[in-house]
């Protein structure tokens, strides 16, 4: 243990300790050294060098997401050949991704780059609300598509999903999304973060925060993953076992085998991604 004067003279040390004789508390004071200044300048330089690349990549991603999902919605709404049973769900999926691209990606990127929330507190609440809303909408729609495909393969002779039923399913999806994300209206807001403005969830009880985080994780990841894994696995097995009636034909059988392999890969990618 060094004295206060000797520690002040040692400018190469990264910190020194002051012992209060009355309370015997130890206070650690961090000093700024030449090495620390060098590391700080390197970090700032690295951040400046990578900022341009991140801005370009994020801008391209956002623009492509907006344009791509807008075209998807336009094609399925106006296109005559695209009127399939999955059309309402695919439109709903594109709407969810479009909401994320417009209301979340730009604001989140600016906040991450500046480390400071420069927008209003109302906008902070809206962004956090829409983030969970869009994620739930996308995940629940994918889950509905998986269940619909499972029902179509398992029970091909039953009545298919009509437009009226699809509307009810989509309404149920968005009702569930609103129920999960509406918590943000109570806990989301801005706060002081060492002289800067932060945007996030402000909980009075840490246990409630953990419960909500776990619930969102289970609802938006665990449950959909389990359901899609089960449904797509069963669909893949049934399609793989299915054979074309009639005599064997080598060319036809090879074409069917290639089609089965494509379907199997598609189901695997849909579940993993």
Walk me through this protein's architecture.
The protein is mainly α and 273 residues long. It has two domains: 50-237, Rhopdopsin 7-helix transmembrane proteins, CATH 1.20.1070; 243-273, no CATH class. The protein is 71% helix and 8% strand. A two-stranded antiparallel ribbon has the order 1-2. Strands 3-4 form a two-stranded antiparallel sheet. A hairpin with a 6-residue loop joins strand 1 (15-19) and strand 2. Helix 5 (121-154) packs antiparallel against helix 6 (163-181).
Describe this structure in a few short sentences.
The chain has two domains: 50-237, Rhodopsin 7-helix transmembrane proteins (Rhopdopsin 7-helix transmembrane proteins, Up-down Bundle); 243-273, no CATH class. 71% of the residues lie in helices and 8% in strands. The protein is mostly helical and 273 residues long.
Based on helices, strands and strand pairing, what is the structural class? mainly alpha
CATH class of the largest domain: Mainly Alpha
**Assembly state (oligomeric):** single chain
Number of helices: 9
Largest sheet: 2 strands, antiparallel
Bulk shape: globular
CATH architecture classification name of the largest domain: Up-down Bundle
Physical arrangement of strands within the biggest beta sheet: 1-2
Rounded to an integer in angstroms, the radius of gyration calculated over CA atoms is: 28 Å
Uncertain residue segments: 1-46
Determine the fraction of residues in helical runs and give it as a percent range. Answer: over 70%
